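so the lab meeting is tmrw and i was supposed to have these ready like two days ago... anyway. pasting both below. for each one the top line is the aa sequence and the line under it is the structure tokens. i havent really looked at them closely yet so no promises
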Amino acid sequence: MTTHIADLTAGDTAGAYGTSPERSEEETGALADRVFASVLGALDVLTIHIGDQLGLYDLLHRRGPLGVADVADATGVHPRYTREWLEQQAVAGIIEVLDPTVPADQRRYWLSEAHAAVLSDRDSLAYATPFARMVAAAAAQLPQLLDAYRTGDGVSWEEYGELMRTAQAEANRPLFLQVLGSDWLPSVPGVDAELRDGGRVADIGCGEGWSSIGIARAYPAVTVDGYDVDADSVEAARRHAEAEGLGDRVRFTLVDASSVPASGEYDLVTAFECIHDLPDPVGVLRSAHRMVKPGGTVLVMDERMPETFTGPGAAVEQLMYGISMLVCLPDGLSHSGSVGTGTVMRPDTLRGYARDAGFDDIEILPIEHDMFRFYRLLG
């Protein structure tokens, strides 16, 4: 359907870098099709964000099929906007419509169980709505991002606001509550047995606390100290721990982890998906080296990036470069003296940081996950 775009542009690129005119035209058409598909995807993401923020998916899952007036009355959304959103979602194949042939005010819509697992069930491992929220939060900062790209400054985590903070927390919450204690930690040599007997855990860059809570839920005898530099995240983490009945074993402190005074007190020190964000990763890893007991474990989980750069790359690397450009690198560069790692932290980069912090090396653990790689820091 984008042949007209390819026709308009093929003449400018035919024969470039030794490619034949026929191949150049094919590549132009393929990229035009890709851009069009990406536009559709971007629109889906933003309309999903609207449905999430207005409570539309939860309502359609719990009470559907519902008509336009039912949805508008229950959510307080204006009826005309309600109708447009429902129709768009049905056309996009995201929600179901009972009979599309009846008049608009008689159509009834619902959200299937399969799609609810992605869009409204925050406990589901398939829950993906937070990623739409993340994109919306980043898009809201585009003017500031353009300025940052020109000046070399950054956009701080605080500037991205509540949408970004809750998106990050909710995206990882199901994994931390369901997989961290049942699968990931038992796969780390020596950790499971140590924690079942009690012990202390330091969770660096804990965010809203779901990783700390997941550890405490899986190991009822441990105490967990979560550390983070974001005040709103620490406040939310404390609320979550109290709501889970874990306030006596899980504590959260607002502090830069590089300045934590603890020395040799922890059986396990963790850093889940945060090292690449830190302006001073070596300083924080040096602190982790000091915090862990002799014979204890320092565990880092970060993005699963290929060992080396290549182009084009796989989907996960494309995703991480996009997040890096819009969120992680600008946040990192908002701090004076930042190393500016960005989301795409390859194993050799972490290895260099670890060695500079006093570790001998890193071990890549045999824990399989599409998005994350797990490292044990040695020595």
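ok protien two:
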Amino acid sequence: MTTVHSPWQCAMELFLIPLILGFALFGASAFTTAYSRRFGARGGTIVTAVLRNLLGIPLWVIGYIWAWRVLSPQIFVPGAITAIVGWILIVAGAAPLLVGHLYVGMRSHFPSVKDTLVRNGLYAYVRHPIYAGGLLMLPGLVLLRPTLTVLIASVAAIIWVFIQARLEEIDLIQRIPEYKDYMREVPRFIPRLRR
């Protein structure tokens, strides 16, 4: 009898390689100002876009899918309640993630030193609605697939979101001087109850 192995089934921890490499390359995309100084405005945008869109995002997505697919110990037995809560978190997170992309448009994927500050819509309430949505979705994914690898990938992604947001803010202050005041006025991920 032959055993058929999925391409995802190998050493359980190997999912970390593309995941962390993807986070690192996406993180390196946060330096649009520095790349623009070195390669010109257009060159800086191209370097940022390649690091983010062609390398970083695909790699961390592959790492996360790998974590989802690999055989891994369950951390709890999922049930109907965890599935419902998981889907609620995913849908609740997808909304600001998608709407946030609509508000910033292509600037999200092709940042430039010529960008202007977006302060309307969700960006009037939080500075990073796209990442805030992701922070809601990640626990939802763990509830849907409660394995050790998905938990590790999700915790790593949460840590990465906080680091990435900070790196981007450092760059945004250089590209858009009024961003510093915006940081004082608008919270990073969680909106204030009263404005």
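from a quick look at the 2nd one: Residues 131 and 162 are 9 Å apart (CA to CA). The longest helix spans residues 32-69. will dig more after coffe
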